[in-house]
Write a sequence for this structure.
């Protein structure tokens, strides 16, 4: 029987995009014959898909799409960055993100839409890809912003392909002014959002529970100084003001110039745009945020699989 090495598993994985353990099994079944192993994996198709569904998918891609006065962002997860570099997967994420505009940014509605040219829903098409590529994939979330008169600008950080990457941001600006110049300031604000990850557009929009929790922590810290309660209250008020300046988009210092707040920078741009500008919303998706990722060494896993462990 041919010896199956980690290098053999790696080569088959690179050719097929199939899962590591599937590649090991294919090589064992075909006595190490690479072409036969490729055919073995192809023949399995969807038969393996259900087994992948339980595995953690925390990698993948964020996609953004703009159309007229609307923009959408979507996150499609895979298990590894290897699949995120797969052209088939990238094309799929790009199409799904465009469809998110039709679905009003609603993930459940998006999953049920027809995948263009596939004769099946987005959810079913992803399930098919699970079998073909060999990793679990999930449509995790989507969102959309639109304006009546203005632009929705986008920015993609750590881009791996056009409109695809690791952090996707949308910013909505209402204005009757020059749309091209408005898009420029919108993109700059989107870059700022990617860098600073604000909690909300304005102080009023911050979740009350979040604000209450911060206030309680500040109060405990202030009371530990032993100062009178009226002084404690002033200390808490000052720290809350600092918290809002750091956490609220419009009050943050604009990273592009390092001097003005975002609110003032947008106000300054009105002269160039030729009309008042109002920031009406933003969305920031960071790949895999909030997903508990398994720990482990992928290279060690490949070696262990090749050794039969």
């Amino acid at each position: 029987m041919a010896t199956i090495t980690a290098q053999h598993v790696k080569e088959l994985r690179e050719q097929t995009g199939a899962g590591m353990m599937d590649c090991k099994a294919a090589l064992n079944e075909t006595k190490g014959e690479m072409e036969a192993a490729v055919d073995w994996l192809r023949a399995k198709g969807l038969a393996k898909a259900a087994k992948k569904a339980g595995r953690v998918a925390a990698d993948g891609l964020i996609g953004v799409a703009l159309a007229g006065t609307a923009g959408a962002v979507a996150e499609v997860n895979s298990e590894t960055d290897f699949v995120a570099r797969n052209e088939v997967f990238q094309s799929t994420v790009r199409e799904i993100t465009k469809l998110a505009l039709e679905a009003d940014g609603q993930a459940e509605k998006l999953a049920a839409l027809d995948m263009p040219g596939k004769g099946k829903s987005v959810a079913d098409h992803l399930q098919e890809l699970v079998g073909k590529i060999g990793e679990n994939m999930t449509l995790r979330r989507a969102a959309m912003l639109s304006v009546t008169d203005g632009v929705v600008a986008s920015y993609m950080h750590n881009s791996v392909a056009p409109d695809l990457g690791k952090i996707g941001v949308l910013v909505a600006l209402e204005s009757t002014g020059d749309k091209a110049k408005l898009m420029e300031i919108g993109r700059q604000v989107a870059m700022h959002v990617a860098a600073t990850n604000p909690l909300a557009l304005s102080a009023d929009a911050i979740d009350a529970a979040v604000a209450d929790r911060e206030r309680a922590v500040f109060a405990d810290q202030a009371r530990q100084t032993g100062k009178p309660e009226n002084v404690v209250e002033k200390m808490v008020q000052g720290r809350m003001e600092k918290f809002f300046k750091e956490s609220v988009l419009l009050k943050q210092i604009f990273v592009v110039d390092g001097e003005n707040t975002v609110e003032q920078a947008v106000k300054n741009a009105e002269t160039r745009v030729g009309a008042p500008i109002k920031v009406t919303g933003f969305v920031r998706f960071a790949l895999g945020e909030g997903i508990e990722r398994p720990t482990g060494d992928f290279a060690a896993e490949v070696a262990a699989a090749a050794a039969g462990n």
Observations:
- The beta strands are 59-67, 70-78, 114-115, 120-121, 138-146, 150-157, 164-165, 167-174, 278-286.
- The longest strand covers residues 59-67.
- The domain at 59-170 is CATH 3.30.479.20 (Tetrahydropterin Synthase; Chain A).
- The first helix runs from residue 6 to 16.
